[in-house]
């Protein structure tokens, strides 16, 4: 989430549990990541690491596309967590509602 909120593409290396699913979603569905390898037993070549770093750092091509997508998502994340006197983002509104429900239930008991 931190990378996306700052508009930074990612290089994935899922090791356990839901990380493989998340890495696949970020790479294939959202187009904001590339995957280096999977699992802790993988052998990783320095050339491959360099290749992927160069790829995500490109100003054009796939790296440029990833940067644009992460930038767009970053703006959406910032809008969702905005909390000013005149504007509350969707996350803030939902959290306020959630906490209000909990507090109302607690007052009843």
Automatic annotation (TrEMBL):
Name of the protein: Uncharacterized protein
Keyword field: Glycosyltransferase, Transferase
Originating species: Malus domestica
MF terms (GO), sorted A to Z: glycosyltransferase activity
């Amino acid at each position: 989430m931190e990378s996306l909120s700052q508009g930074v593409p990612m290089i994935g290396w899922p090791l356990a549990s839901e990380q493989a699913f998340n890495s696949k979603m970020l790479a294939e569905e959202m187009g904001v990541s590339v995957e280096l390898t999977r699992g802790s037993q993988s052998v990783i070549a320095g050339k491959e690491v360099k290749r992927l770093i160069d790829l995500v750092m490109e100003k054009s091509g796939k790296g440029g596309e990833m940067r644009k997508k992460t930038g767009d998502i970053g703006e959406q994340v910032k809008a969702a967590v905005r909390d000013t006197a005149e504007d509350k983002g969707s996350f803030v509104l939902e959290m306020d509602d959630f906490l209000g429900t909990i507090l109302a239930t607690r007052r009843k008991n």
